[in-house]
Design a protein that fits this description.
This protein has 282 residues and is an alpha/beta fold. It has 2 domains: 156 residues, HAD superfamily/HAD-like (Rossmann fold); 112 residues, Hypothetical Protein, Haloacid Dehalogenase-like Hydrolase, Chain: A, domain 2 (2-Layer Sandwich). Helix content is 33%, strand content 21%.
Length: 282
C-alpha cells in the first residue's frame, strides 16, 4: 500500500493488542509512553482486538487512554468509559451452533466467545498458551487464568442462552489448520482470518475489524480516512487495508505487511513506539 501520511488528518488510532502493543504478558514502558503521547495529541484511542472486554489486560486498561474498543474482531463495539456496548454484530444463534458443530468434528481445540465469558476446551487453552502468555501482574503475583474451560463445550454452549460473538479453533500445525480451513469454508459462509497460521478466528460474514472501525467512525462522526491502524496479523488485514494510514510490525503475517503503508520494527523492539515517534514526532 502507498497511502500518504498526514498527521493533521489523523483523529483516531486503532491498535491491535496481541503481537502489536502486548507481548509475553507485558506492554513495554516505551510503548506505554508513546501511546500516552499519542493520546495527548487529542487522538481518540481505540483497541481493535480479537479479545472481548473482559479479556483486555489490566496494564492496558489502567493506562486510562482507551475510550473505545472494536472487540472480538468487530462484532462488539465497546465504550470503556461507560462500560457498555455501542453496537453489536453477533452470530445468529442457529448459524453459530452449525459452525460450532463443524469445528467440533475437526478438532478438540476450540472456543466460543459470549459477552459474559469466552469458553474454551482444555486443548484449546493448552495450544493458546503456547502462543499468548498470561498477563504479568505489576505486583509480582502469580498470573491468573481468565478463561474458563469445559470438557464438553458443545453441551455448555447449548445450555448458555446468550449470543455468540466469535468462534475459533486452533491446531498443532499450520498444515492441519489449512486443511481444516478448506473444510470449514466448504460448509460455512463466514469470516475466518488466522492470527498465526495455526488458528482460525470466526465471525459472521462481513464482520471484522475493518467493519467494526467503520461503525465506530460513523458513531463518532469521523471518516475512515481519519484513522491510523496498527496491527500484525491476519485479523488486522481488512482494517489495515481501509484505514487512512496503516502500520504493520515486522515479524507479523505477510498479509498484514502487504496491507501496510509503513513497516515498523517488531513488537519486541517496541515497533509501535518507534512508529509513533517517527510519524508524529513525539
Amino acid at each position: 500500500m502507498n497511502k500518504t501520511f498526514d498527521k493533521n488528518n489523523i483523529k483516531l488510532a486503532a491498535l491491535d493488542v496481541d503481537g502489536t502493543i502486548f507481548h509475553d504478558g507485558l506492554i513495554s514502558e516505551a510503548v506505554q509512553k508513546a501511546l500516552i503521547k499519542l493520546s495527548d495529541l487529542g487522538i481518540i484511542m481505540v483497541l481493535a482486538t480479537g479479545r472481548m472486554q473482559y479479556g483486555i489486560p489490566d496494564t492496558i486498561r489502567d493506562l486510562g487512554i482507551f475510550r473505545y474498543g472494536v472487540l472480538a474482531n468487530g462484532t462488539l463495539i465497546w465504550d470503556f468509559e461507560k462500560n457498555c456496548s455501542i453496537a453489536e454484530h453477533p452470530f445468529e444463534r442457529g448459524e453459530a451452533d452449525s459452525v460450532l458443530r463443524v469445528i467440533d468434528s475437526l478438532t478438540d481445540a476450540y472456543f466460543a466467545a459470549f459477552k459474559s465469558e469466552s469458553s474454551l476446551t482444555p486443548k484449546h487453552l493448552e495450544l493458546l498458551r503456547r502462543t499468548i502468555k498470561l498477563e504479568v501482574p505489576k505486583d509480582g503475583s502469580k498470573p491468573k487464568e481468565i478463561y474458563p474451560i469445559y470438557d464438553n463445550l458443545l453441551t455448555h454452549v447449548a445450555n448458555l442462552d446468550e449470543q455468540i460473538f466469535k468462534l475459533g479453533c486452533r491446531f498443532e500445525t499450520a498444515e492441519v489448520c489449512a486443511e481444516a480451513r478448506v473444510k470449514i469454508r466448504e460448509l460455512c459462509d463466514i469470516e475466518m482470518p488466522s492470527t498465526d497460521g495455526k488458528d482460525i478466528e470466526i465471525t459472521p460474514l462481513g464482520v471484522h475489524k475493518g467493519s467494526g472501525t467503520l461503525a465506530l467512525c460513523k458513531h463518532l462522526g469521523l471518516d475512515i480516512s481519519n484513522v491510523i491502524a496498527f496491527g500484525d496479523s491476519g485479523n488486522d488485514v481488512k482494517l489495515l487495508e481501509i484505514a487512512g494510514f496503516a502500520v504493520a510490525l515486522e515479524g507479523g503475517r505477510e498479509s498484514a505487511l502487504k496491507a501496510a503503508d509503513y513497516i515498523a520494527p517488531t513488537v519486541q523492539e517496541d515497533g509501535v513506539a518507534k512508529a509513533i515517534e517517527d510519524l508524529f514526532g513525539v
